[in-house]
Amino acid sequence: MIEHNKDLDVFRADVSKWLKENNPKDPGFILPETFMEVGTDQQFEFLRDWQRKVYDAGYLGMAWPTEYGGGGMPQIYQDVVNAEMAKQRVPFVPNTIGLNWAGPLILNMGREEDKQRYIKGILNADDIWCQGFSEPEHGSDLGNAQCRAVKNGDDYIVNGSKIWTSLGSYAKYMILLARTSTDGDNKYAGLSFFLSPMQVDGIEPQPIKKLTGEYGFCQTHFIDAHIPADCMIGAQGEGWQVAMKTLMFERGATGGQAGGLSMMDINMGDVLELAKRARRNGKPALDDPLIRDELVQLLIEERSNRLMNVRAKIPALNAERPNAISMSGKLRSSELKRKFTQFALSLQGANGARYVSAAAVDGGRWQRSYFNSFSATIGGGTSQIQKNILGERVLGLPKS
Q1: pLDDT digits (tens, 9 = 90+) for 188-243
Q2: 195 and 120 in one domain?
Q3: Active site annotation includes 273
Q4: Fewest C-beta in 10 Å: which of 165, 181, 209, 252?
Q5: In 3D, which of 66, 36, 39, 65 has the Cα closest to residue 250?
Q6: What is the CATH number for 307?
Q7: What range defines the domain where residue 192 resides?
Q8: What gap in Å lies between CA 222 and CA 148, rounded to an integer?
Q9: Pick the catalytic residue: 37, 84, 214, 250?
């Protein structure tokens, strides 16, 4: 067990040393960038083994209660670990939905038996979680979910389907939003929230092949699936409020996540290195003033996003709109990723069209990252939905 009173500089040095000694070597196969691209057993087992190693070392769930498997330490220790992981660019931990959304929700709203049942399995990667919110026919209209859950004795019988259930084929549990009532005009009042088991008869995840040739997403079908009534969190009909709480964790607007990297991301430092290598009209691309200007603008945006996290901790700098930073984080980060990967493709000129070709720049990593960047602009609420939320809840604009 790590000492609670260990000096942060000493602790940081210990973490840095451990990561250098334990950072997994290149496995010899392509690793996904995020949990949304985990599509092979080989990738999954590699990443799950890494999460277990990080947890066993005491570097995951450090601020979660000890009685449920956490470290019981101040959040600053986990922040140090997260920063060192990003600095050393170690693999991400795959149980993203469990660590960042389901786990914080259970600790915040769950019963004592829920915390005892689920939390440690989330941390040590024994129990992988997926999300059952979006549906094929309803786009971003989450409140119009039609997947039905009908009470039958000690169970609910579920019918319908969910889409974009990342890790669905590996998950043991799903955070599921389902309709338990169609009475009345208020569509939100008929929704309930379940911590649903996945490995039961009638629940069938079907992997979806993406444009990149990878898997990771699933469409999950429910066909007369029986799930226990006691896996409901909150009361029947209160699912919308629970879902909104979950989305606050998902978007990073509310703290309490377990820690660890959630992605192996390329960043603007990588784009800058590419710009130094790229050629334009026989000269270095950086000689072009238009390219330099666009590159500087992206570097400013990345730096601004990082400074936002510091600013958020200073109340005097957020007095006018205290929720603006936390509520805009998901929109800012996902849109920046989309923009700078698109810029990276433009640096390649005609080579930017190559992806599967052996001649593709850097093995096609930029094309792959650009295609995959769109998933983050959709998950957790599309960029358009995020702008509406900011307009209404931060700027006070009317809904219409």
Answers
A1: 889 999 999 999 999 999 999 888 888 888 999 999 999 999 999 999 999 999 99
A2: no
A3: no
A4: 209
A5: 36
A6: 1.20.140.10
A7: 130-250
A8: 9
A9: 250
